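LAB NOTEBOOK - FOLDING QUEUE
OPERATOR: T.R.
BATCH SIZE: 2
PURPOSE: Compare the predicted structure-token outputs for two unrelated chains run back to back under identical settings.
PRIORITY: normal
REVIEWER: second-year student, initials M.K.

ITEM 1
FIELD SEQUENCE / FIELD STRUCTURE:
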Amino acid sequence: MKKIFLPIISAILLASCSGDFLDISPETKKPAENFFTSESDALAATTAIYSFLRSWDNSAFPYQYLFGVPADDVLKGSNPGDASGILVYDNFTYTASDGGVEGYWNGQWNAVARCNQVITNVPKIAMNEELKTRLVAEAKMLRAYFYFNLVRIYGGVPIFDGIPSDFNYNIPRNSVDEVYNFIISDLTSAAAILPTNYPSTDVGRVTKGAALGLLSKVYLYKKDWQKAFDTSNQVIALGYSLDPDFNHLFRLAGEFGPESVFEVDCECSALGGSQYAEVQGVRNEFGWGFFTPSQTLIDAFEAGDIRKELTLLREGETTPEGDLIVVGDPLSVKIFNQKVYVPRAQNNYSCGYGSRQNIRILRFAEILLINAEAANELGNTATAITNLNKVRTRAQLPNTTANSQAALRTAIWHERRVELAMEGDRFVDLVRTGQALTVLGASGFKANKNEVFPIPQNAINDSKGVLTQNPGY
């Protein structure tokens, strides 16, 4: 079912890099300059990028600090005294010296550097030309994803298009628009090369649909409605479909299904598993119990919406797979994220709880909602309603009653909230749509400051002032 990960030699990564926020210690003793000599090296280097997607920095605490807890749908979770430092993200009192701010920054640059090693070095290898071209396209698609994370969280950041010829990594930040244009260039280039699907031995690699899907989302953030509409239509034409069973969609049997546009393979393997599910699992039964649903999220679901109980995992319930949920910590919260639940009988305990749970980065349901939002902003009410209702029908809800542009805009935003609940989009959606101050102001959110996070103080210090801080920090 999950075949993407090949044997990996991670020493390729940053042996030649300088600049502290890009320096990552090699994991073996083989230096990068001696690595990129064969086709197997090219494959291993590309696999090193994929392995980062399941890493702690990209999918566990640092990710949740910035994409999860600041929103109104995610709470710290666990018990009150456990990791109470996370609360600074809930009340917007974090600083440029906070470990989560720095951890996510360092992690994303680690990933960008892995991509740039492939983009710079693989073209020099004597190997199958078709495979070489595809691996570089994969690296560009993934680099675009990491830059998309960086620009949404930190604003403008330095652009490194491959390994600099002078090895100078201490350069100023580019503007937000420049970063978005760089992302668009990478995704457009990758989409022209990547296949629409792979043989079973390579399931999990990024596809043309993944590149176009992420590109449509980038255009959504840029409010380039026509391109968001046209690009999401290209994805729709590739033949994706909604999984008719919302519970199945998030279980192991639903991984890499017809709704999967961009999904991270987290199967327990020689690389270990992922802690994405473990940190959110039911406390002292399946996991650590962090990053749990808020009451405002619970209240946001309409009556009859099947997604509500398939998003929430409550103490005392018996899951469709037959597990009785018993919270082992009497002081813990009692409601958790069911989307990350792995049935006890299917868990691979050699890698810890939930290590088999894939991370769904982009689903076809979101493509439909991107298309609906863009269509609505273009005045195409009929198409917006059609695609919004496809998502609602799967949730066993009646068709939307919204029929004006303003009402549809609100309905689509709401649908994104409940469809993508706990999947890391809520905070950046609130910022993107201009709702952040209204929704989060009472929690401490300040306009013209908290739309982005601070550049880590250590990165600014290491750059000797070349990197500048975001306003308000």
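ITEM 2
FIELD SEQUENCE / FIELD STRUCTURE:
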Amino acid sequence: MKNFFSLLKREFRLFWGNKVLRILFIGAPLMYGILLGYVYGKGKATDISIIVVDEDRTEMSAKAIQLFEDNEVLHISKIRYDQNDLSDVSIEYDASAVVIIPKGFQNEVSTKKYPEILTIVNTANILTANYASSAVQLCLGTLKAGIQIQTLMKQGMPPAIAATQYEPFKATFIKKNNRSTNYMYFLWPGVLAAVLQQVLLLGLALSFSSEYEKGTFGELIRRTPSIVNLLAVKIIPYLLMSFGVWLMYWLFTFWFRVPFYENLWALTLVAGIFVVAVCFIGVLVSIVLPTQLQATEVLMVIATPSFILSGFTWPLSQMPLWVQYVADVIPLTHFLKAFRVLIIEDGRLSQTYSFIGALLITCLVCGILSYICLYFKKKSYLKLHPEEGEQL
């Protein structure tokens, strides 16, 4: 028993002696606990973007708009007076619903012609779609009740009788994009992209750190003195293998009958830039950290919360500003935004330029940092092994 406790003490000493493991074991739960607390801290979605098309422009339509503005769940991002280019405007403002108040609405209500208010719900994100449609329905129900009360006051009819005889207008809800609100169509591709990012990061974590540990870094720089070539030989295999994974994902869409046909080439272009950005992050960490274990552990910390922070399921707008800044550094955030626009919302490639730009910035910054760090690693190695430097 004494020997057993001695071994336990030894194990604790080994744990506390490993700085990286100590930081990860204590720091990761602490960091994720705080981070996820802030991500979901509100507990409900508020200020969800909607667009109102007011073709009537009357006192009654103004009352409806005011009800939307007073509802904490909704935020009117744009008020329009026609239905031109509604799809483009919805993508631009990331609107969860478009409410259309028809021309002659007030007049038809007054003459009991039962006009119709149409609400187009964007089910690209099922969560925000449900919040938005419920809030719009509540506002329109309140408006109906208000109109009924005014009518009762004018006619002197008892409220209970009038409520069964008079319906001032109809409210129709139409689902757009993922019309069946199929969670498979919504969640499955996003999770697969997160998996691709994670395996790329874990694979590239070993790219240079394994060379350091095995003592083959010197052989590598003898065979390929160019820094650019060193980076290329590490990244290109993963680019080629990622294309194979992308092709496999595409074949899965036929197997599971997921509609994945429109804008496929545009999304493939964005996916290629996304993969390059992830590769440069992985290579950078692998260059900086001296062991495979340390590189893998750090990249796991980066990769694990990325899907939650991407805003794909829980909207980024509901998170604190500093969390949004963290999310913007993660390539998955921008790829999933582009995916939603191109595949779920059937948008155009030009509507994803801001996301592509963010991915290209990540490529550029991490690429330059990788070059600089590898340059100094090579210089440091040759300083310790001057005989090898003379052979180059």
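REVIEWER COMMENT (ITEM 2): The chain has a mean pLDDT of 83.
FOLLOW-UP: none requested
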